[in-house]
Design goal:
Blueprint lengths: L2 H14 L3 H14 L4 H13 L3 H14 L4 H13 L3 H14 L9 H20 L3 H14 L4 H13 L3 H14 L4 H13 L3 H14 L4 H13 L14 H8 L1
Helix pairs in contact: 1-2, 2-3, 3-4, 3-5, 4-5, 5-6, 5-7, 7-8, 8-9, 9-10, 9-11, 10-11, 11-12, 12-13, 12-14
Length: 255
Protein backbone atom coordinates (compact mmCIF):
# COMPACT_ATOMS: atom_id res chain seq x y z
CA UNK A 1 0.00 0.00 0.00
CA UNK A 2 1.39 3.38 -1.00
CA UNK A 3 1.54 6.38 1.29
CA UNK A 4 -1.33 7.92 -0.68
CA UNK A 5 -3.45 4.79 -0.17
CA UNK A 6 -2.73 4.84 3.56
CA UNK A 7 -3.77 8.47 3.90
CA UNK A 8 -6.95 7.86 1.91
CA UNK A 9 -7.87 4.75 3.89
CA UNK A 10 -7.20 6.56 7.16
CA UNK A 11 -9.33 9.50 6.04
CA UNK A 12 -12.26 7.19 5.30
CA UNK A 13 -12.00 5.67 8.76
CA UNK A 14 -11.89 9.10 10.35
CA UNK A 15 -14.97 10.13 8.38
CA UNK A 16 -16.85 7.09 9.69
CA UNK A 17 -15.83 8.11 13.20
CA UNK A 18 -16.95 11.71 12.44
CA UNK A 19 -13.45 12.89 13.30
CA UNK A 20 -13.58 15.55 10.61
CA UNK A 21 -10.44 17.40 11.64
CA UNK A 22 -8.23 14.35 11.24
CA UNK A 23 -10.11 13.25 8.10
CA UNK A 24 -9.50 16.62 6.47
CA UNK A 25 -5.83 16.52 7.39
CA UNK A 26 -5.36 13.10 5.80
CA UNK A 27 -7.35 13.99 2.68
CA UNK A 28 -5.27 17.10 2.12
CA UNK A 29 -2.09 15.04 2.51
CA UNK A 30 -3.44 12.47 0.05
CA UNK A 31 -4.23 15.29 -2.42
CA UNK A 32 -0.72 16.68 -2.06
CA UNK A 33 0.80 13.30 -2.88
CA UNK A 34 -1.62 12.70 -5.74
CA UNK A 35 -3.07 15.98 -7.08
CA UNK A 36 -5.07 13.99 -9.65
CA UNK A 37 -7.00 12.05 -7.05
CA UNK A 38 -10.65 12.66 -7.85
CA UNK A 39 -11.63 10.42 -4.94
CA UNK A 40 -9.80 12.50 -2.34
CA UNK A 41 -11.35 15.69 -3.72
CA UNK A 42 -14.81 14.11 -3.70
CA UNK A 43 -14.42 13.09 -0.05
CA UNK A 44 -13.19 16.59 0.77
CA UNK A 45 -16.33 17.95 -0.89
CA UNK A 46 -18.49 15.70 1.27
CA UNK A 47 -16.60 16.76 4.38
CA UNK A 48 -16.93 20.47 3.59
CA UNK A 49 -20.63 20.02 2.82
CA UNK A 50 -21.16 18.36 6.20
CA UNK A 51 -19.41 21.29 7.89
CA UNK A 52 -21.47 23.85 5.93
CA UNK A 53 -18.37 25.12 4.14
CA UNK A 54 -20.32 25.30 0.93
CA UNK A 55 -17.94 27.28 -1.27
CA UNK A 56 -15.11 24.87 -0.47
CA UNK A 57 -17.41 21.92 -1.12
CA UNK A 58 -18.43 23.26 -4.54
CA UNK A 59 -14.80 23.88 -5.45
CA UNK A 60 -13.78 20.36 -4.39
CA UNK A 61 -16.63 18.72 -6.33
CA UNK A 62 -15.84 20.77 -9.44
CA UNK A 63 -12.16 19.79 -9.26
CA UNK A 64 -13.14 16.14 -8.92
CA UNK A 65 -15.37 16.44 -11.99
CA UNK A 66 -12.62 18.18 -13.93
CA UNK A 67 -10.36 15.21 -13.26
CA UNK A 68 -13.11 12.65 -13.94
CA UNK A 69 -15.95 14.15 -16.02
CA UNK A 70 -18.09 11.00 -15.72
CA UNK A 71 -17.85 10.95 -11.91
CA UNK A 72 -21.54 10.39 -11.21
CA UNK A 73 -21.34 10.60 -7.42
CA UNK A 74 -19.62 13.99 -7.60
CA UNK A 75 -22.21 15.30 -10.07
CA UNK A 76 -25.08 14.12 -7.88
CA UNK A 77 -23.51 15.52 -4.72
CA UNK A 78 -22.93 18.88 -6.38
CA UNK A 79 -26.51 18.88 -7.64
CA UNK A 80 -27.80 18.23 -4.12
CA UNK A 81 -25.61 21.01 -2.73
CA UNK A 82 -26.85 23.50 -5.32
CA UNK A 83 -30.44 22.67 -4.38
CA UNK A 84 -29.62 23.07 -0.68
CA UNK A 85 -28.35 26.56 -1.47
CA UNK A 86 -31.44 27.44 -3.49
CA UNK A 87 -29.55 27.41 -6.80
CA UNK A 88 -32.15 25.16 -8.40
CA UNK A 89 -31.25 25.76 -12.03
CA UNK A 90 -27.61 24.83 -11.41
CA UNK A 91 -28.83 21.80 -9.47
CA UNK A 92 -31.11 20.73 -12.31
CA UNK A 93 -28.35 21.05 -14.90
CA UNK A 94 -25.93 19.05 -12.78
CA UNK A 95 -28.60 16.40 -12.14
CA UNK A 96 -29.25 16.10 -15.88
CA UNK A 97 -25.53 15.64 -16.38
CA UNK A 98 -25.53 12.79 -13.87
CA UNK A 99 -28.47 11.14 -15.60
CA UNK A 100 -26.75 11.28 -18.97
CA UNK A 101 -23.70 9.61 -17.46
CA UNK A 102 -25.75 6.52 -16.61
CA UNK A 103 -27.87 6.43 -19.76
CA UNK A 104 -26.09 3.38 -21.12
CA UNK A 105 -27.90 0.05 -20.62
CA UNK A 106 -25.01 -1.55 -18.73
CA UNK A 107 -24.30 1.32 -16.39
CA UNK A 108 -27.96 1.86 -15.71
CA UNK A 109 -28.21 -1.60 -14.21
CA UNK A 110 -25.86 -0.47 -11.45
CA UNK A 111 -28.20 -0.55 -8.46
CA UNK A 112 -26.02 1.83 -6.48
CA UNK A 113 -26.35 4.54 -9.11
CA UNK A 114 -30.07 3.90 -9.42
CA UNK A 115 -30.47 4.39 -5.69
CA UNK A 116 -28.54 7.65 -5.91
CA UNK A 117 -30.80 8.90 -8.70
CA UNK A 118 -33.89 7.79 -6.81
CA UNK A 119 -32.70 9.73 -3.77
CA UNK A 120 -32.33 12.83 -5.90
CA UNK A 121 -35.90 12.52 -7.18
CA UNK A 122 -37.09 12.11 -3.58
CA UNK A 123 -35.26 15.28 -2.56
CA UNK A 124 -36.82 17.19 -5.43
CA UNK A 125 -40.21 15.80 -4.45
CA UNK A 126 -39.71 17.03 -0.90
CA UNK A 127 -38.83 20.45 -2.26
CA UNK A 128 -42.05 20.58 -4.30
CA UNK A 129 -44.02 19.48 -1.23
CA UNK A 130 -42.56 22.36 0.75
CA UNK A 131 -44.19 24.76 -1.72
CA UNK A 132 -47.42 22.73 -1.85
CA UNK A 133 -46.80 21.75 -5.47
CA UNK A 134 -48.12 18.26 -4.90
CA UNK A 135 -48.52 17.18 -8.52
CA UNK A 136 -44.85 17.87 -9.23
CA UNK A 137 -43.92 16.15 -5.97
CA UNK A 138 -45.90 13.07 -6.93
CA UNK A 139 -44.22 13.02 -10.34
CA UNK A 140 -40.78 13.04 -8.71
CA UNK A 141 -41.73 10.26 -6.28
CA UNK A 142 -43.07 8.17 -9.17
CA UNK A 143 -39.74 8.57 -10.95
CA UNK A 144 -37.92 7.58 -7.77
CA UNK A 145 -40.10 4.48 -7.42
CA UNK A 146 -39.29 3.37 -10.97
CA UNK A 147 -35.61 3.54 -10.12
CA UNK A 148 -36.04 1.91 -6.71
CA UNK A 149 -39.19 -0.24 -6.91
CA UNK A 150 -38.38 -2.09 -3.68
CA UNK A 151 -38.37 1.09 -1.56
CA UNK A 152 -41.35 1.13 0.83
CA UNK A 153 -40.40 4.62 1.99
CA UNK A 154 -41.17 6.06 -1.44
CA UNK A 155 -44.61 4.44 -1.54
CA UNK A 156 -45.40 6.01 1.83
CA UNK A 157 -44.38 9.40 0.43
CA UNK A 158 -46.68 8.92 -2.56
CA UNK A 159 -49.52 8.01 -0.21
CA UNK A 160 -48.90 11.14 1.86
CA UNK A 161 -49.01 13.34 -1.24
CA UNK A 162 -52.37 11.83 -2.20
CA UNK A 163 -53.59 12.50 1.32
CA UNK A 164 -52.47 16.13 1.21
CA UNK A 165 -54.47 16.57 -1.98
CA UNK A 166 -57.54 15.10 -0.32
CA UNK A 167 -57.40 11.89 -2.37
CA UNK A 168 -57.84 9.62 0.64
CA UNK A 169 -58.95 6.60 -1.37
CA UNK A 170 -55.83 6.83 -3.56
CA UNK A 171 -53.67 7.12 -0.46
CA UNK A 172 -55.33 4.04 1.02
CA UNK A 173 -54.82 2.11 -2.22
CA UNK A 174 -51.10 2.84 -2.23
CA UNK A 175 -50.73 1.73 1.37
CA UNK A 176 -52.66 -1.47 0.75
CA UNK A 177 -50.33 -2.20 -2.15
CA UNK A 178 -47.36 -1.52 0.10
CA UNK A 179 -48.68 -4.02 2.64
CA UNK A 180 -48.84 -6.75 -0.02
CA UNK A 181 -45.18 -6.38 -0.95
CA UNK A 182 -43.87 -5.35 2.48
CA UNK A 183 -46.18 -6.90 5.10
CA UNK A 184 -43.69 -6.32 7.92
CA UNK A 185 -42.87 -2.69 7.16
CA UNK A 186 -43.94 -1.03 10.40
CA UNK A 187 -44.15 2.62 9.22
CA UNK A 188 -46.38 1.48 6.37
CA UNK A 189 -48.73 -0.38 8.70
CA UNK A 190 -48.91 2.62 11.04
CA UNK A 191 -49.75 4.88 8.12
CA UNK A 192 -52.29 2.37 6.77
CA UNK A 193 -54.03 2.45 10.13
CA UNK A 194 -54.22 6.23 9.93
CA UNK A 195 -55.61 6.02 6.39
CA UNK A 196 -58.37 3.71 7.59
CA UNK A 197 -59.00 5.97 10.58
CA UNK A 198 -59.33 9.03 8.32
CA UNK A 199 -62.10 7.26 6.41
CA UNK A 200 -63.91 6.21 9.58
CA UNK A 201 -62.87 2.56 9.27
CA UNK A 202 -62.08 2.17 12.95
CA UNK A 203 -61.90 -1.62 13.15
CA UNK A 204 -59.46 -1.85 10.23
CA UNK A 205 -57.35 0.92 11.74
CA UNK A 206 -57.12 -0.85 15.08
CA UNK A 207 -56.22 -4.12 13.39
CA UNK A 208 -53.25 -2.51 11.64
CA UNK A 209 -51.98 -0.90 14.83
CA UNK A 210 -52.37 -4.24 16.63
CA UNK A 211 -50.17 -5.86 13.99
CA UNK A 212 -47.56 -3.21 14.63
CA UNK A 213 -47.64 -3.94 18.36
CA UNK A 214 -47.34 -7.66 17.67
CA UNK A 215 -44.02 -6.91 15.97
CA UNK A 216 -42.99 -4.02 18.19
CA UNK A 217 -44.88 -4.01 21.52
CA UNK A 218 -43.39 -0.68 22.55
CA UNK A 219 -44.09 1.18 19.32
CA UNK A 220 -45.05 4.63 20.57
CA UNK A 221 -47.02 5.62 17.46
CA UNK A 222 -49.25 2.54 17.50
CA UNK A 223 -49.88 2.92 21.24
CA UNK A 224 -50.70 6.60 20.76
CA UNK A 225 -53.13 5.96 17.91
CA UNK A 226 -54.90 3.16 19.78
CA UNK A 227 -55.33 5.57 22.67
CA UNK A 228 -56.64 8.14 20.19
CA UNK A 229 -59.16 5.63 18.84
CA UNK A 230 -60.40 4.87 22.33
CA UNK A 231 -60.83 8.52 23.22
CA UNK A 232 -62.69 9.18 19.97
CA UNK A 233 -65.28 6.59 20.95
CA UNK A 234 -65.32 7.17 24.69
CA UNK A 235 -68.70 8.92 24.75
CA UNK A 236 -70.42 6.15 22.78
CA UNK A 237 -68.41 3.23 24.13
CA UNK A 238 -67.20 3.94 27.66
CA UNK A 239 -64.11 1.97 28.44
CA UNK A 240 -60.70 2.55 29.94
CA UNK A 241 -57.36 2.51 28.19
CA UNK A 242 -56.28 -1.11 28.23
CA UNK A 243 -52.86 -2.70 27.98
CA UNK A 244 -51.75 -4.46 24.82
CA UNK A 245 -52.80 -7.87 26.18
CA UNK A 246 -56.49 -6.88 26.14
CA UNK A 247 -56.53 -4.99 22.83
CA UNK A 248 -58.58 -7.76 21.11
CA UNK A 249 -61.40 -6.98 23.57
CA UNK A 250 -61.30 -3.39 22.35
CA UNK A 251 -61.77 -4.57 18.77
CA UNK A 252 -64.79 -6.68 19.74
CA UNK A 253 -66.27 -3.71 21.62
CA UNK A 254 -65.96 -1.45 18.58
CA UNK A 255 -67.45 -4.04 16.25
Amino acid sequence: MTLYDRYLASAKEKLKEKNFEEAQKHLLLASEINPNSHEALFLLGNLYHTQSQFEKAIEAYKKALALKPNFTDAALSLSILYNDLGQYEEGRLMFNRAQKQVSGPTDFQDSYIQEKLALKHVELGELYETYHRFLEAEEQYDKALKLSPQSPEIIVRIAKVHEKQGALSESLKELKKLKIFHPDYVPGLVKLGLAYYAQGKMIEAIQEWEKVLDMDPKNSEALLYLDMAQKAHRTALPFKLVPKTTIPDLRRSLS
